[in-house]
Structures are given as C-alpha cells and as structure tokens.
C-alpha cells in the first residue's frame, strides 16, 4: 500500500455530492484497499457552509473557497451543476494536471471538447459515468468495451425525472405537476427541472453518448429536442387504449454519412422491454455491428445511485495515479456531422379534434394519402355536442413516414375548417 494519501476535493454537497461525501468517508478503508493508497477528503466547496445537508460531515470540511480547495487536491469531484463556475473550476483542475470526475451533463454536452483538450494537454483524466443514466455503466462500455466495434444505434430512456412523471401518469393517473414535485423531493430532478421536462437533460446525455458511440464531436445544439410538457392526460389515456405507453426516448442513430440525434416523447408498445422501465429507472439499448444488441438497465437518477457511478470513476482514476501514467484521451476521428430531421422515418400517432360531419374523415385520410403518409389504424370517439354540432376526437396511427412528409401533411390538415385542433403528434417506436 502506498502511504501517500490521494487528496480529494468535492465541489457541491447536494443530492449527489452529499452521498459521495458519505461514501468517501464511510468506505475509506475499503476504497484504500481497492486503490492501493489511502483516500483523504480534504474539503467540500459549497455556497453556504451553514446549510443543512442530506449527510452531515465535520463542519470544518466545508469551504466557500473552491479555487484554494482545487489547488490543494489531487483529484476534483464536481457535483455543483450548471455551466459556470463549474467550467472554469474544472479547467483550473485539469490545467493543473488534476484528474476530474463530474456528473455535469449540461456542461459536458456544451464544452466537453474544450475540457477533454485541457485534460489531454496535462495527461489528466476527465471521467463522467454519472452524467448519463445515473448508476448505469454506459459511458465506460461505449468508451472502452465497445471501442473495437462499430456502433450503429443507441436508443433509450435517459432521464429519470420524466420517466417517473410519465410512469406515474400512466400507472396511477397522477397529475403532471404532482409527479414532478415528487420527483424533485426524491432528488431525481435537476436544480431547474425545466431541463428535465423540456428534454434538455436527455438531449445533453444524447449528445455525450453520440460523441462516444460514433467517435465524433456532438454538442446539445446537434440534438432535435421535444420534451414532455405537451403530453396531456388525454394522450396517456389514448396510449393506453391503443396498447402503448409514452416514454421520453433519446435516439442516436447512424443516418447515411451522419448521425441523427433526437429526444422526443414516443409511444412504445406495452410488450416492448422499454415499456416496463418504471419509476426513475433508465434503459439504454446499443446496437453494434459485431456485438449485436445490448441492453443496459438500472437506476438513472437519485443521490446514492449516482454517487456509485462517481465513486467508480474516482477509484479508476486513483488506481491509475498509484500505478502512474496519463489519462486515456477520447477519440473523435470519425468527425461525423449531425443530420437534419426531415428524412427521419418513424410511425406517428396523431390526435385531432374535428367537427363530426359527413366527409370530414374521408377528407383527412385523403390528405394523409396525398402526402405519402399511410394510415395503419384510425379511431373516432364522440367528444361533445348534439347531432347537429357534434365534435369528435380522432386518433390516427400511421405506417412509417418521413418527418418532412408528416409535417407537410399536418400543416394541410390544420388548415381545414372542420379540424378544431391537432391535439398531439407523437412518434411510435418499437414495432
Ligand atoms: N440528482 C441526480 O439524480 C443526478 C444528478 N446529476 C448531476 O450531478 C450534479 C449535482 O446534482 P444534484 O446533487 O442533484 O444537484 P443539487 O442541486 O442537489 O446539488 C448541487 C449543489 O451544488 C451547490 N452549488 C451550486 N453552485 C455552486 C457553486 N458555485 N459553488 C459551490 N456550490 C455550488 C448547490 O448549492 C447544491 O448544494 C448536476 O450536474 C446534475 O446534473 C447527474 C446524475 C444524476
Ligand atoms: N435529472 C436527471 C438526473 C440524472 O441524470 C434525471 O432525472 O435523469
Ligand atoms: Na452512468
């Protein structure tokens, strides 16, 4: 055993940071055995040293001077979130040759390349298993285990908060706002949960995953993003009636010479494995030329599960420090570009509110046909009004169509006097 302790600076003591502090302190002996050197948590940078925490530590560990703490450390663990000052602090550490563990997907999906370049310059390691799908090992499998294969597609549920909300709406009939409040209480949501419900958190993860899977440089700006704020209780009910469940899916797939990266609510058949991903669990499918299809499943959010991924990265970095040698840089040799949505082909479920008159349905199906959007099923229900002024809801599930054709078709349908409202357009996957 090496006698020299590895000094750890922890930035942030929220849901995840406090659990990391707990593990570093409670499991110090085991960690030392696994690493081959003692581990010393030298301080925790916070905004308010007197705030109440999820796990209480010796008060002298808290400091508001993050820079001094970083300068005194061997390894920095960043769990504050947000772009600044996290970016500047991580750069400070990496430039000083200190390896960094971070769970900050928002930062990595925007400035990941800049941070990796800084790490490469000094031989430091930047690791971020916690940034995608919480406790699930997915970064390391993509970066290391599959580095000799050709990944063609990564698809999955990569946000715990939205999965929790949609699952509660589906299984208990909960209201969106109540389910979101519960996800926040359980420590799943981002500090600003807009990032979760608007799809930006999943989009950050998709950009990170696509960069690793396709050996290219993607940022969140390369991702087509639709969140779940437009998903209504009626959509959930209609999904149930049609044998589907709504999930927020992230899809990164090889598309000709590029990669299409998107996040959108998706109808998944009840029999599909993704349909049984409940609560804040995540599941990620990876398809590769030689490996075939792989599935990664587990807790995608929450303090302790995420801390587990952080500690895994930390132990790996600390072991390398004991043995010597630089961090492993990532490859972006393929330099693939993100492709536009217009050629993406999917099935769709379209909800309409229409006047229930002779010829209305025939007119709508004609417009679909004229735009090369073939209808698989159609269901009509009376909504309100008497025989003279009856209003109906129509739910159409299509065969596969391009995004461009569907968009044009919807514009023409929307312009019909007999169509009151297009209530929803949701993609369908998995059949
Ligand atoms: N909560 C979860 O399930 C997961 C979170 N993450 C990521 O881990 C990071 C931390 O997440 P949580 O612990 O949930 O957030 P949190 O909001 O519970 O904790 C963040 C802590 O950092 C502190 N902080 C913020 N800015 C600071 C600054 N400038 N200086 C010092 N302290 C500062 C806040 O006061 C807060 O205590 C984020 O990047 C998040 O995206 C990643 C995976 C899962
Ligand atoms: N807010 C995120 C936390 C984990 O990444 C989520 O809900 O998945
Ligand atoms: Na992970």
UniProtKB/TrEMBL annotation:
Domain ACT: 349-430
Protein's organism: Rothia terrae
GO biological process per UniProt: methionine biosynthetic process; threonine biosynthetic process
UniProt entry keywords in alphabetical sequence: Amino-acid biosynthesis, Methionine biosynthesis, NADP, Oxidoreductase, Sodium, Threonine biosynthesis
Keyword Amino-acid biosynthesis: yes
InterPro entries the record matches: ACT-like_dom_sf, ACT_dom, AHAS_small-like_ACT, Asp/hSer_DH_NAD-bd, HDH, HDH_cat, HDH_CS, NAD(P)-bd_dom_sf
Binding site for L-homoserine: 190
MF-aspect GO terms: homoserine dehydrogenase activity; NADP binding
Protein name: Homoserine dehydrogenase
Alphabetical list of SUPFAM superfamilies matching this protein: ACT-like (SSF55021), Glyceraldehyde-3-phosphate dehydrogenase-like, C-terminal domain (SSF55347), NAD(P)-binding Rossmann-fold domains (SSF51735)
Residues at the active site: 205 (proton donor)
Cofactor: a metal cation
Catalyzed reactions: L-homoserine + NADP(+) = L-aspartate 4-semialdehyde + NADPH + H(+); L-homoserine + NAD(+) = L-aspartate 4-semialdehyde + NADH + H(+)
Cross-referenced Pfam families: ACT_AHAS_ss, Homoserine_dh, NAD_binding_3
Function, as annotated: Catalyzes the conversion of L-aspartate-beta-semialdehyde (L-Asa) to L-homoserine (L-Hse), the third step in the biosynthesis of threonine and methionine from aspartate.
Binding residues for NADP(+): 11-18
Protein family: Belongs to the homoserine dehydrogenase family.
Annotated pathway: Amino-acid biosynthesis; L-methionine biosynthesis via de novo pathway; L-homoserine from L-aspartate: step 3/3; Amino-acid biosynthesis; L-threonine biosynthesis; L-threonine from L-aspartate: step 3/5
Positions bound to NADPH: 105
EC number(s) from the headed UniProt entry: 1.1.1.3
């Amino acid at each position: 055993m090496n006698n020299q302790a590895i000094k750890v600076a922890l930035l942030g003591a929220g849901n995840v940071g406090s659990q990391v502090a707990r593990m570093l302190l409670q499991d110090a002996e085991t960690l030392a055995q696994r690493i081959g050197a003692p581990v010393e948590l030298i301080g925790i940078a916070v905004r308010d040293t007197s705030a109440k925490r999820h796990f209480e530590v010796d008060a002298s560990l808290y400091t508001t001077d993050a820079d001094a703490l970083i300068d005194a450390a061997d390894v920095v663990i960043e769990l504050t979130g947000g772009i600044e000052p996290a970016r500047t602090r991580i750069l400070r550490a990496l430039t000083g040759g200190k390896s960094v563990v971070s769970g900050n997907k928002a930062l990595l999906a925007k400035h990941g390349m800049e941070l990796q370049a800084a790490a490469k310059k000094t031989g430091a390691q930047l690791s971020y298993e916690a940034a995608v799908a919480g406790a699930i090992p997915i970064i390391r499998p993509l970066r290391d285990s599959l580095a000799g294969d050709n990944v063609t597609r990564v698809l999955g549920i990569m946000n715990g908060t939205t999965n929790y909300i949609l699952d509660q709406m589906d299984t208990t009939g909960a209201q969106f706002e109540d389910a979101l409040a519960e996800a926040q209480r359980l420590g799943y949501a981002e500090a600003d949960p807009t990032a979760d419900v608007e799809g930006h958190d999943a989009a950050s993860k998709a950009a990170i995953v696509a960069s690793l899977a396709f050996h290219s440089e993607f940022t969140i700006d390369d991702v087509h993003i639709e969140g779940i704020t437009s998903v209504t209780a009626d959509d959930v009910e209609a999904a149930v009636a049609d044998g589907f469940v709504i999930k927020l899916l992230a899809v990164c797939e090889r598309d000709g010479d590029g990669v299409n990266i998107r996040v959108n609510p998706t109808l998944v058949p009840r029999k599909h494995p993704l349909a049984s991903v409940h609560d804040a669990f995540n599941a990620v499918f990876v398809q590769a030329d030689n490996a075939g299809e792989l599935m990664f499943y587990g807790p995608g959010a929450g303090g302790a599960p995420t801390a587990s991924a952080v500690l895994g990265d930390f132990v790996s970095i600390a072991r390398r420090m004991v043995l010597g040698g630089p961090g492993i840089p990532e490859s972006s040799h393929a330099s693939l570009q993100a492709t536009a949505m217009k050629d993406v082909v999917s099935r769709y479920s379209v909800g309409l509110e229409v006047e229930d008159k002779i010829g209305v349905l025939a007119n709508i199906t004609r417009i679909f046909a004229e735009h090369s959007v073939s209808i698989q099923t159609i269901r009509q229900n009376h909504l309100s009004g008497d025989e003279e002024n009856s209003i109906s809801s129509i739910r159409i599930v299509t065969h596969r169509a391009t995004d461009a054709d569907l968009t044009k078709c919807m514009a023409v349908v929307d312009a019909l006097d007999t169509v009151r409202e297009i209530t929803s357009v949701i993609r369908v996957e998995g059949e």
